[in-house]
C-alpha cells in the first residue's frame, strides 16, 4: 500500500484528500516509479476545480515528478529498475508516493540533475522549450514579451530567451516579483496596472513584437494582441485569470494580419524522439548554468491543499515541489 492525494469531487483546495491506495503493478509497457519529488503546476488547479475534466473519480492529480524505477512490465526497453527518471505527461496521477506510467514517457536523468530540480523542471522546462524553440523559434536580437515572468515557466523562459540572445519584456504583479524576474534575465518590467501596449511601444521604439507568450488568459489577451507587430504571433498557453473568450477573427486582420495559437506540451512531445530532444536541450541549458531551476517552495505531499492555496493566491515564485 501507499498514499496519494486525490479528489472525490471538484472544488477548492479542501477537496484534496490524503488517501491510502494500492501500489500498482506495472502492466506491459509500463514502469513503476517511486516518486522523490513532484511538481506543482497551475494545470493541477484546473483539474481540481473542474475547469478541466478528470477521467473518473476519485482522481489523483499531478502531471510531473521525478523518482526511481522500482519495476518494469513486459516489453519495456526504455528504462530499467534503479534508473533515476522524470516525466511531465498525461494522464494525471503524479500526486502519489508511487505510480505506474508508460515507460516511453519517462526520461532518464543525468547525474548532474538533482531530484528536486527534476521534479520541478520537467513540465515547466519542457513548456519553455517548445514555446521558445518550436512554437516561435526565438533568435538573437529579437524582443519578446513573457507574461507572469516571475512564475515557474516565466523564470525559465526569461533565462533561456536571454541565453538565446533575445531582449525580454516581463510582466509582474508586485515589486518583489519584478526584482526576481530581473534577476533571471528580464530586461524590462511592466507592472500590473501599466498600459502594456504603450510600454511595449516605448521599449521597442514603435517596432512592437514578433511574439507574445501569455499564460494569464482572459485579463491580458486583448492587450497582448496590441503589443504585436504585423504578422506577429500570439501564443496563448494558459488561463490563470480565466479562459479567453471567443475571438473575432476580423480583429486579427485589423490589428495587422496576426497569428494566434493555443499550443500544448502533449502535442509537442507526442513523439518520443521529440520528448527526448526537448529533455536533452533542457538538461543542457540547466547543466551549463544558463538556466537555473528556482525551487522556492517545498511542501510535504500530504500538504498539497496548502500548496494549492498559495499558488492560487499568487504567493509563490519560481517552482514548487511536493515531497512524498
From TrEMBL:
Note whether NADP occurs among the keywords: yes
Record keywords, A-Z: NADP, Oxidoreductase
NADP among the record's keywords? yes
Q: Which Pfam families match?
A: ADH_N, ADH_zinc_N
Q: What is this protein called?
A: Quinone oxidoreductase
Disordered as annotated region, ranges: 1-27
According to the UniProt entry, its GO molecular function terms are: mRNA 3'-UTR AU-rich region binding; NADPH binding; quinone reductase (NADPH) activity; zinc ion binding
SMART domains tied to this protein: PKS_ER
Residues folding into a coiled coil are none
Give all residue intervals belonging to the Enoyl reductase (ER) domain.
11-322
Q: Where along the chain is composition biased (Basic and acidic residues)?
A: 1-12
GO CC list = cytosol
UniProt superkingdom: Bacteria
